[in-house]
Design brief:
Strand content: 15-25%
Shape: globular
Largest sheet: 6 strands, parallel
Number of helices: 17
Distance between the termini: 80 Å
């Protein structure tokens, strides 16, 4: 097993090494894109027959018609009832915490009246219908169902449609139970790019949605890119990431397991530890070697750490925070004695976990904030998924007679400056009873 790399910010080669460490490959390869274009085109053209054909081909299911793709609500309820009591309780507690957090994110309509009596405002309305993609088969994540569906429901979305593949007719009971608990309105067992195309353009079985959210493989990501514009999407998610900043006083076993928790996702995941304490980094290196053989997913973790992981020594915590903002990580743990002192320095991070007792894994499942987060440095301009992603804002303007005249003068002047005379005349007509019209 390859060792995790060590970097030191004082070395001349550090900047080049950091650029190489943070470099990410294009999320969509050419051959994937070509396949996805073909799938999306067929679904858009043929509808349900294409879904049936692709489901037979990719999921190895002997279905007769698109009607066989639907999952009855009673099946979701039965899945929830079939789980052990502790599992049901854990899902319920997680759902309740996610809902409580989401309730505080709701945007409200507002308005004000200016000095001319014009009423200006913003109207907030939920989307009519949202599509949630949920991986199936080996990659089954009930937590993602809760994280994607509950904020949409809190926003007031009229209908939530969930697409989940069922390879070899296998459905994950946890996923179905989470769909029941979160309040999914319709579940269709179709996956991959064909599911994204169906939700984007609509078929007889899968209704057209306003926005598609949820994680997926490279084909799902490519399809989301392709249909964007015809439908809204959450984001194109890259591999999972964590940056831990430690002052050297943390338990090395805790830090190592936090790094492992992201590295075990897949070989492209990234786990980085930053500390000014060289001895602590040495201790973490030894702890990784001790803990790794005990992990069920040790081969994935080892490859992830060797390919994209790093232990970085910096001169100070000030430098560590500068480095954090350059990386703009999906997950940031401030494993420090006084993390709140350093929080204002964080400009770019998807989610911040304060203190030694706050494991990132708690955010993945049950803390409350959403675990759908920006990756690959996109925390510089993207935010976590939330209720606001399922609400639309409409500007509202109502002019009084006096206000219409005043705005008419301004608008007419600006329109003529742009050479748009019809605009100018339209605005000037509101200058009632004056020679300016």
């Amino acid at each position: 097993m390859s060792a995790i790399r060590r970097l030191c910010s004082s070395e001349a080669s550090f900047q080049a090494a950091l650029v190489a460490l943070l470099e990410t490959a294009d999320t969509v390869e050419t051959n994937v894109l070509e396949t996805v274009q073909r799938i999306v085109h067929r679904v858009r053209l043929e509808g349900d027959p294409a879904l049936v054909d692709f489901t037979r081909q990719f999921d190895r299911r002997d279905i007769q018609s698109a009607a066989d793709l639907a999952v009855a609500p009673a099946r979701l309820e039965a899945a929830f009832a079939s789980l052990p009591a502790d599992a049901r309780n854990a899902l319920e507690q997680a759902a309740d915490r996610i809902r409580q957090y989401a309730e505080r994110q709701k945007l409200e309509s507002w308005s004000f009246t200016d000095s001319f009596g014009n009423e200006l405002g913003q109207q907030i309305r939920p989307m009519d219908r949202v599509g949630v993609y949920t991986p199936g088969g080996k990659a089954a994540y009930p937590s993602s169902v809760l994280m994607n569906v509950i904020p949409a429901k809190v926003a007031g979305v009229g209908e939530v449609v969930m697409c989940v593949p069922a390879p070899d007719d296998a459905l994950n009971e946890w996923v179905l139970a989470a769909a029941h608990l979160a309040g999914v309105d319709r579940v269709v067992t179709v996956g991959g790019a064909q599911a994204i195309a169906a939700m984007a353009y609509g078929t007889d079985t899968v209704p057209r949605v306003d926005k598609i959210v949820g994680p997926g493989n490279a084909y799902v990501a490519a399809a989301k890119k392709l249909v964007f514009g015809a439908v809204g999407i959450d984001m194109i998610a890259g591999p999972s990431e964590i940056v831990v900043v430690s002052d050297g006083e943390s338990d090395p076993d805790w830090v190592v397991m936090d790094l492992f928790s992201q590295a075990e996702h897949d070989q492209d995941a990234q786990a980085i530890l930053i500390s000014p304490d060289r001895d602590f980094l040495d201790l973490v290196t030894k702890t990784i070697q001790q803990q790794l053989p005990r992990q069920p997913r040790r081969e994935i973790i080892a490859e992830s750490l060797a390919r994209r992981g790093a232990l970085i020594q910096v001169a100070s915590l000030d430098e560590a925070l500068d480095l954090v903002n350059r990386i703009a990580p999906e997950h940031l743990e401030l494993a420090l004695s006084e993390p709140e002192v350093w929080l204002p320095r964080v400009r770019h991070a998807g989610a911040v976990f304060l203190g030694r007792y706050t494991a990132e894994a708690m955010g993945d499942y049950c803390a409350g904030p959403n675990h759908v987060l920006p990756t690959s440095g996109s925390a510089r301009f993207f935010s976590p998924l939330g209720v606001y992603d399922f609400q639309k804002r409409s500007s509202v303007i109502r002019c009084s007679p006096e206000g219409g005249a005043e705005l008419g003068r301004i608008a007419a002047c600006l329109a003529r400056g742009e050479g748009l005379e019809a605009h100018a005349q339209s605005a000037a007509l509101r200058i009632v009873g004056t020679s300016d019209a």
